[in-house]
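Q: I have 364 residues here and want to know how they pack in 3D. Can you give me a structure?
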Amino acid sequence: MDSSSSTPRAITGIVICCRPGFEKDAAAELTEYALIRGHAGYVTTTAESGFVVLNLDEECSFETINRNIRLAELIFARQLGFRFGTASHMPDDDRVSPIIELARCAPSRFSSITIETPDSDATKPLSGFCRRLSAPLGRAAEKANVLRPKRVHLPNLAILFIGQGKAFLGINSADNRSPWPSGIPRLRMPKDAPSRSTQKLAEAFVTLLSDTELEQRLRPGQRAVDLGAAPGGWTWQLAWRGLRVTAVDNGPMAASVMKTEMVTHVRADGFKWRPPSAVEWMVCDMVEQPSRIAALVADWVASGRCRHAIFNLKLPMKRRHEEIGRCRELIGQRFAKAALSYRLRLKQLYHDREEITGFLEAIR
């Protein structure tokens, strides 16, 4: 276990959780992003582990790094914590004491504690153990004056177990971490939805938009277009939320979608069809080259055909980071041509596979 002392520890690393198999992409993105913001370091990770660590060349304060490194701006990161210590070789009969010993020397006291694991085959079995550890650790943390639940302004003690006897101890704040364990929202599959893809759009709404933004931008009675809609997973999600949807696809729509009586099916090519008048939302989950989708979506939003768009980019097996940069550039060029500012958010969601999901809107 790391040695501890009475001297408060500084932040020594950035720890993120990601989709297993995407560690290299997450590491490349985090390294570049952190360097631009003044935090250089070297990455340590393992294939299929579901997490990445950026070890900082220079220690820094929690306040500084929390201001500079934001989870919402990282595509491949599901969860984020700023490491101040590592508890390793913990005895099987006592994980609480080593964690408390390190937490005493944290840069701050805490208002809450989260205990998580990466979403990998190796660490998933630890999830039950983490739940059982929560209560005794919380009691010990309060007794040691590490945990002060009534002081809600204090940050969270983020503990990430990567093995039975090893855990990273870090800090994160309520506005800079995922509210879901390991960054994975637990969504139920609606029984009437025609395909599991409906969960992608449901997750996109709660991940890419805040509660306030959802309330302001997504309301019953609005009009939406779903490009490449069949069999209707995304269309169903929109109709279930009370939107009237034009589903554009040459393929057939599921009967459960049409039964909502909120959907008009247009048999047409999603790249060629245009609405007779502007709509509030356009969504797109077509299987096509990501640059072609990025250009299509940017044109819809920049031209005013829709106010907001959610879309998927199917990434290539290699050079994913470069392809994302190319898509960003295409979107930027289209909005520059229209002399408009825009808001773009990209994230690899839990229900995504070899893809990322985007939210795009013009700032008028």
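Q: Anything worth noting?
A: The two ends are 54 Å apart (CA to CA). Residues 280 and 307 are 5 Å apart (CA to CA).
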